[in-house]
Design a protein that fits this description.
Strand content: under 5%
Number of helices: 3
Order of helices and strands: HHH
Radius of gyration: 23 Å
Mean pLDDT: 85
Largest sheet: none
Low-confidence stretches: none
Structural class: mainly alpha
Number of domains: 1
Distance between the termini: 13 Å
Helix content: 55-70%
Number of strands: 0
Length: 91
C-alpha cells in the first residue's frame, strides 16, 4: 500500500500481527485423515474376504461405509487446505 510519508510500510502493516497458526488443529485434521484412510482400507480388506454367502444387506452397509469414509477424507482434505489458505502470510 502506498504511503504518504515515504515509509516502506504503511502504519497498519507496521503494527499488524497475523493470527497464530493452529498447528494442533492441523495435526488433528491430518490424524483424522490418516485414521479414516486406515479404516477405509480395513473395511475394504474385510469386504475382500467375506464369504460368498454373506448377507447382502450387510455387504451393502459395508460398501456404503467405505464410500462415506472416502467422502470424509475428501472433506478433511478440503478443510485442511481451506484453513491453510485462510492464513495471512506476513512478509
Amino acid at each position: 500500500m502506498p504511503t504518504e510519508d515515504g515509509a516502506d510500510v504503511c502504519a497498519f502493516c507496521r503494527t499488524y500481527t497475523p493470527p497464530p497458526t493452529n498447528a494442533e488443529a492441523d495435526r488433528l485434521i491430518a490424524s483424522a485423515y490418516s485414521h479414516t484412510q486406515a479404516a477405509a482400507d480395513d473395511a475394504g480388506n474385510a469386504l475382500d474376504i467375506l464369504p460368498e454367502d454373506a448377507p447382502l444387506l450387510a455387504v451393502v452397509d459395508l460398501v456404503t461405509a467405505i464410500a462415506h469414509m472416502k467422502a470424509a477424507r475428501r472433506c478433511l482434505d478440503k478443510a485442511g487446505a481451506g484453513f491453510g489458505a485462510a492464513q495471512v502470510v506476513r512478509r
